[in-house]
Design goal:
Blueprint lengths: L4 H40 L11 H24 L10 H26 L9 H4 L1 H12 L5 H7 L9 H18 L5 H17 L14 H18 L4 H6 L18 E2 L6 E3 L3 H14 L1 H15 E3 L4 E3 L12 E3 L3 E4 L2 E2 H13 L3 H14 L9 H6 L8 H10 L17 H25 L2 H17 L5
Antiparallel strand pairs: 1-2, 3-4, 5-6, 6-7
């Protein structure tokens, strides 16, 4: 059936629009699904995910993050938004500091890998990331980012309790000095190390509060671990203190499983929360270096009570089996808890397992993390970015995972391999390639709509015949 002249014009006008729409759909399929799928498949094949070494995804993520962190940190400092942060809003107060500290510690690990011969990056981290390194330190020391702890503790907040914040200062400045060796941070670092060691050592049971009335022993363990790292920079020796500090997590101060409790009252020394997955995974990074004779037993206790494999996923629980806590929930410290799995516990568990040589678990957790990370061609990890605080700490997720993946086994620890891919890894691959393939197929069909071609072609031939061009 012949088309009217006006119909032919509408078809002809619609053809470019239809083609551009199909092209956009194909670009969407490639950018958000197919290219990420190929990246994930390549990363999953990296031996450094399930064995000692620095995974390629860590190098790639660090390069991308380094170009973004300095502008973010300096804009945030200049805006002074941190000075107006709500006092008890954890993402607004803690997460920007954590971002800078995680980034610096990860950069230190990558610099060490580069110096030991890993040339995944042709340029050493301290060269291409120099601006980000300095910006991270500037954020850590920025007075507006200290407003919330100054409000909690008063003007002597750097010399009174405040364990979590002071530990972050020590960790960040230690890595900064290791990376730059410029000496500018040594006076403050030395002051923080000596005063925090003294405060903990002279406390009744080796514990101090993070915030008024809130003591988290897991943060004390991390603080002592950071103090130990600082000794190497300052040339100090606090080994006697580290040995004595074991008192804060032993005997009646240990939880019923013999592990570090999550929260304790410093007024009565009664446990307010037993050990939890996110806390155990975090302290596992430090226990072996601080108390090597006991660390294997402590990790084994944690592993026995908290590791679970349900086929579709494997990882660390947030709560020990039999607790009255829900198997499905979400909170600011734990993140989402799904079927008992703690997302934060499993993310931090990558670092804890790697440090203790448990690559059977670290490899499994890393495979899940890589599969779910949704890496975009720009280097952004879309899933960690989406669960970070978009306004105040958009890069926390990526900085944290970067740090976890750059942890190496401590010297002398036995390395256990034999990781596997749970079902969600295969499901993620099916998602990338399935959705991407479907969108690409639709784009091709849309662009090659035969009825449109035939209609336009028929109309063109009819016009030609009417003008005598075609016999």
């Amino acid at each position: 059936m012949a088309l009217s002249h006006s119909s032919r014009l509408r078809f002809a006008a619609a053809a470019p629009t239809r083609f551009l729409s199909a092209l956009s759909l194909a670009a969407l399929a490639l950018y958000f699904f197919l290219l990420p799928g190929f990246t994930v498949a390549s990363d999953l094949a990296d031996p450094a995910l399930s064995h000692p070494g620095t995974p390629r995804v860590a190098w790639r993520t660090h390069r991308a993050l380094s170009s973004r962190l300095a502008p973010w940190a300096r804009e945030r400092i200049a805006s002074r938004r941190a000075a107006q942060a709500p006092l008890h809003d954890v993402p607004t107060t803690e997460w920007p500091m954590f971002t800078a500290v995680f980034y610096l510690m990860a950069t230190e690990s990558l610099e060490t890998s580069w110096e030991e011969g890993d040339r995944t990056s042709s340029e050493r981290p301290t060269e291409y990331a120099a601006d980000a390194i300095h910006a991270a330190k500037e954020l850590i020391l920025d007075p507006s980012h200290h407003t919330w702890v100054r409000t909690h503790w008063g003007d002597d907040y750097l010399h009174r309790e405040n364990v979590f914040f002071r530990a972050l200062i020590v960790a960040g400045l230690t890595s900064y000095e290791q990376l730059t060796h410029d000496g500018t941070s040594l006076p403050m670092l030395r002051d923080q190390v000596e005063t925090l060691v003294s405060d903990l050592d002279h406390s009744e049971r080796g514990l101090l509060n993070d915030y008024p009335g809130e003591c988290y022993p897991i943060d004390v363990v991390a603080a002592v671990g950071f103090l130990q790292r600082a000794d190497a920079v300052l040339g100090t020796d606090h080994r006697a203190f580290f040995a004595r500090e074991r008192r804060a997590f032993a005997g009646d101060l240990a939880d019923p499983l013999g592990l570090v409790p999550y929260r304790v009252s410093t007024a009565t020394y009664e446990q307010e929360q037993p050990s939890r997955g996110v806390g155990n995974s975090w302290v596992a990074v430090f226990l072996g270096d601080l108390w090597p004779a006991e660390s294997s037993d402590l990790y084994a206790r944690y592993d026995s009570a908290f590791w679970q494999d349900h086929g579709w996923a494997a990882g660390f629980r947030e709560w020990a089996p039999g607790s009255r806590e829900p198997e499905w929930m979400s909170e600011v410290d734990a993140g989402p808890v799904l079927d008992g799995f703690g997302t934060a516990a499993s993310a931090f568990g990558i670092a804890g397992a790697r440090r203790n040589g448990r690559f059977d678990e670290a490899g499994t957790l890393s495979a899940e993390m890589v599969a779910l990370s949704w890496p975009l061609p720009t280097g952004t990890l879309l899933t960690p970015r989406s669960v970070s605080h978009a306004t105040d700490a958009p890069y926390l997720g990526e900085a944290g995972l970067l740090y976890f993946l750059t942890i190496e086994p401590r010297a002398g620890v036995s390395v256990v391999t034999g990781s596997h891919w749970p079902g969600l890894v295969y499901g993620a691959l099916a998602f990338y390639f399935g959705v991407g393939g479907l969108l690409l197929w639709l784009a091709v069909r849309w662009a090659s709509a035969r009825k449109l071609k035939l209609a336009v072609g028929a109309g063109s031939r009819a016009d030609a015949r009417s003008e005598g061009v075609v016999a």
